[in-house]
Design goal:
With 174 residues, the protein is mainly beta. It has one domain. It is built from 1 helix and 12 strands; from the N terminus they run E-E-H-E-E-E-E-E-E-E-E-E-E. Strands 3, 4, 5, 6, 7, 8, 9, 10, 11 and 12 form a 10-stranded antiparallel beta sheet that branches. It has a two-stranded antiparallel sheet with strand order 1-2.
Length: 174
């Protein structure tokens, strides 16, 4: 048996493994995302997160949805969501791919737009769909959680998408 400073090496390795497993998951910094959007089986890493509260939900006729924008490249400063939701359109700068997902007051996705190299797919408003959101934090300062769908969604335009992304985003200052 091998020893290091009088302690069996296997014990030291076991303690190191336990320390790694017991460590809390690393929290994402605001403005960051980890995950991907798959378009027709081709993965796009989503690494940037933006969010703004007060988005209009036409199904409920309320202004309390949170718009979350998840992208593969940073949005130019003048194209980022601001404190006024109506100022942010659903189109991205050329070459930027990602999703716009609105979360309603019950922490359920209510609206989805997918941006990809060939254009944009507007999923529209829905309730009780395959789109899911697992909230970690949703308060007056921002939103954190994981947005996903479990199975590829086939669109009427002939492409399919799948996403699973964890993100953290603070709301812009008013």
């Amino acid at each position: 048996m091998r020893f290091l400073h009088g302690t069996p090496l296997i014990v030291l390795v076991g303690l190191a493994v336990l320390a790694v497993l017991a460590a809390p998951a690393r929290a994402l910094q605001p403005g960051k995302a980890e995950g991907e959007l798959s378009l027709n089986g081709k993965a796009v890493k989503l690494i940037h997160a933006y969010a703004v509260p007060g988005q209009k939900n036409t199904l409920t006729d309320t202004d309390d949805d949170v718009m979350v924008v998840l992208t593969d490249k940073p949005l130019p400063p003048d194209a980022r969501p601001t404190a006024k939701p109506s100022e942010f359109g659903y189109s991205f700068a050329p070459g930027v791919q990602g999703i716009v997902l609105c979360i309603d007051r019950s922490s359920e996705p209510s609206h989805l737009v997918v941006h990809h190299a060939d254009g944009m797919y507007f999923r529209g408003y829905f309730k009780g769909s395959e789109n899911k959101f697992k909230s970690k934090r949703l308060d007056k300062k921002g939103i954190e959680g994981t947005a996903y769908i479990s199975e590829p969604y086939k669109t009427s335009k002939g492409f399919s998408y799948l996403y699973n992304v964890t993100f953290a985003a603070d709301f812009p200052a008013k």
